[in-house]
Specification:
The chain is an alpha+beta fold. It is built from three helices and four strands; from the N terminus they run βααββαβ. Helix 3 links the parallel strand 3 and strand 4. It starts with 9 loop residues before the first strand and ends in a 6-residue tail after the last strand.
Length: 101
């Protein structure tokens, strides 16, 4: 049985975006976003799916050093990222941590 693309995301470091070949202006916007998040003790990574959909995703790591992105979160991130890309927005998402997860 073949998995749907929304549940087969790959988590990669932010640096992968530098290899993609975005315009300098686009990368500058992404770098500013990452800098703002790092000042708040957050980490920015990249989720990508086999169909080419991607998003920069912020992890709130104030209390934990490990993050799990379950299938439900992957599906929600995919739908949000796809909608943002289709509307010509940068797909910047935030994964909210919960104390009792």
């Amino acid at each position: 049985m073949r998995k749907r693309p929304i549940t087969t995301a790959v988590l990669q470091p932010f640096s992968i975006l530098r290899q993609v070949g975005f315009s300098p202006r686009y990368m500058q916007r992404l770098e500013r976003y990452r800098s703002r998040q790092e000042k708040q003790s957050r980490v920015v990574g990249v989720l990508s799916w086999p169909d080419g959909t991607w998003c920069a995703i912020t992890f709130h790591t104030e209390k934990f050093n490990a993050v799990t992105v379950d299938e439900g979160q992957q599906a929600a991130a995919y739908e949000d990222a796809r909608a943002m890309i289709d509307s010509d927005f940068l797909p910047l998402l935030s994964l909210r941590w919960e104390v009792h997860a």
